[in-house]
């Protein structure tokens, strides 16, 4: 009984403290009402969606609080602000809007690769693809400060674009992924690795667009002179097995060897499954023997 009475006495203060924790900006706005009418409040672009998952049951602060100038003075300060607000149920949805507000406040503001990589990861994880496109536009229009001391682009530009390309391709938006890849190709100072092309190639194969995958491979090797790797051929072998049959897949396996690209266990296992699926067991066993001769272990799958 004594514990119940103590809890009953403390319950109002606990509720009040909880409300302040989840909505600290409400108390601030009541104490300083002039902030709500200040022109320096964070602008919300209606074309950019807010975080739809973790904060779907909450709306952003209304009116939106002003962004202190100290938080937008440098990319490092804004990065610290985003780290502190990442668990806030309302302010977490404003991550890109905070960056755009800082960029609008000063034409000299340029986000660095740590800030853009963090935002790209968050936008990709929450599938905010329009916001991801806006972020890439900002990255290209305002290069990372790392590029000031060199004639080359920022070497850490690739991870930001890789997250974006992967998000676009995973969602099935191949045009957006191809556009991001083309933008990165123009911004980068050296040829891109096959890894970036494999993302789109895998997405095309997953969408059962086999003909488009073959055309993309031709563009990758002939137009952009990118050397395919084992993962590239594994995608084409698997897609050919499912769409055209194992004979077409064997053509890609021979092309793989012609380009001096060593087959992997995935290559052999895909061909074996293709032969066994078509009832050609002797040819499947022949592939298994060749696999063992090359020192590649058999897969239990």
UniProtKB/TrEMBL annotation:
> Does this UniProt record's set of keywords contain Repeat?
yes
At the top level of its lineage, which domain of life is listed?
Eukaryota
Transit peptide: is it a keyword of this entry? Answer: yes
- Alphabetized UniProt keyword annotations: Repeat, Transit peptide
Q: Which InterPro entries match?
A: PPR/CCM1_RNA-binding, PPR_rpt, TPR-like_helical_dom_sf
First and last residues of every PPR repeat: 229-263, 264-298
What is this protein identified as? Pentacotripeptide-repeat region of PRORP domain-containing protein
């Amino acid at each position: 009984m004594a514990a119940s009475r103590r809890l009953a006495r403390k319950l109002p203060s606990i509720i009040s403290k909880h409300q302040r924790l989840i909505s600290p900006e409400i108390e601030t706005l009541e104490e300083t009402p002039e902030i709500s009418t200040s022109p320096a409040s964070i602008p919300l672009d209606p074309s950019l969606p807010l975080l739809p998952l973790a904060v779907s049951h909450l709306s952003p602060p209304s009116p939106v609080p002003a962004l202190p100038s100290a938080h937008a003075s440098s990319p490092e300060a804004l990065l610290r602000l985003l780290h502190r607000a990442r668990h806030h149920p309302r302010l977490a949805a404003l991550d890109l809007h905070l960056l755009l507000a800082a960029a609008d406040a000063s034409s000299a503001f340029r986000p660095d690769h740590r800030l853009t990589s963090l935002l790209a990861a968050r936008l990709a994880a929450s599938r905010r693809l329009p916001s991801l496109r806006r972020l890439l536009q900002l990255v290209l229009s305002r290069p990372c400060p790392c590029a000031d001391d060199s004639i080359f682009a920022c070497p850490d530009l690739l991870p930001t674009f890789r997250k974006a390309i992967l998000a676009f391709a995973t969602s099935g938006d191949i045009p957006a992924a191809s556009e991001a890849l083309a933008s990165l190709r123009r911004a980068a100072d050296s040829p891109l690795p096959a890894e970036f092309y494999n993302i789109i190639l895998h997405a095309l194969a997953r969408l059962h667009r086999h003909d488009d995958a073959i055309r993309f491979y031709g563009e990758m090797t002939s137009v952009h002179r990118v050397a395919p790797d084992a993962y590239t051929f594994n995608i084409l072998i698997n897609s050919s097995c499912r769409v055209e049959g194992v004979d077409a897949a064997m053509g890609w396996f021979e092309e793989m060897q012609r380009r001096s690209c060593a087959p992997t266990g995935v290559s052999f296992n895909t061909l074996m499954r293709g032969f066994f699926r078509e009832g050609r067991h002797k040819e499947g066993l022949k592939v298994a023997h060749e696999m063992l001769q090359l020192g590649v272990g058999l897969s239990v799958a």
